[in-house]
Amino acid sequence: MQETIEITDDIRKAEEEKIRIEYYTLDNNTHDIYMCPGDLIIICNVIHDYAELLQEIAEEVKGHGVAVAVYNYHHDRCKKIQKIIEDAMGYSTEAAIEKCKKKRERENKEDIGEDALVLATRARRREEVKRNTEASKNVKKIIKLGGIYNDDQRF
């Protein structure tokens, strides 16, 4: 119980330690946003996961030059934003992921705490590859049964 109280107190103190973020609008007005360091860490982690998702999608749509360029542009922009925030805070998403991986290895677990969106995208892609492989095998069987398939022919 005492540990829970201490953790709650740490969270409350962290939320009180606001970091000022200043931004400018197109009409030259300035605005300030105050966020606690934990919120900025979450933003860095979300940006990291989204950038990885963009990169995976760009790999899936190879051959569509404009689409790949757009995904790569947004990936690079996300990484730039992530780096600015991390450098200002002295935080590293990559280091946090490595730390998490080492901890999970000790616990013999597969999930490293990645965003559900990234995990769902990977699962969808694995399922598509599996379906395409099965469909290809079925086509070969049909062609072979019809006497059209020759073992020397390749798809």
Which key phrases capture this entry?
2 strands; 5 helices; mainly alpha; 155 residues; 8% strand
| Tally of DSSP helical segments | 5
Helix content: over 70%
Class of secondary structure makeup: mainly alpha
- The count of β-strands is 2
**What order do the SSEs take from the amino end to the carboxyl end, as H and E?**
HEEHHHH
DSSP strand content: 5-15%
- Which word captures the global form? flat
* Global Rg: 24 Å
Main β-sheet: number of strands, strand sense, barrel status?
A: 2 strands, antiparallel
CA distance, first residue to last residue? 64 Å
What is the typical, i.e. mean, pLDDT? 78
Which sequence of strands runs across the widest sheet?
1-2
Low-confidence stretches: 147-155
Structure explained in plain terms:
The chain has helices at residues 2-16, 37-60, 65-89, 93-107, 116-145; strands spanning 19-24, 30-35. The chain is mainly α and 155 residues long. Strand 1 and strand 2 (30-35) form a beta hairpin. The model is unreliable at 147-155 (pLDDT under 50).
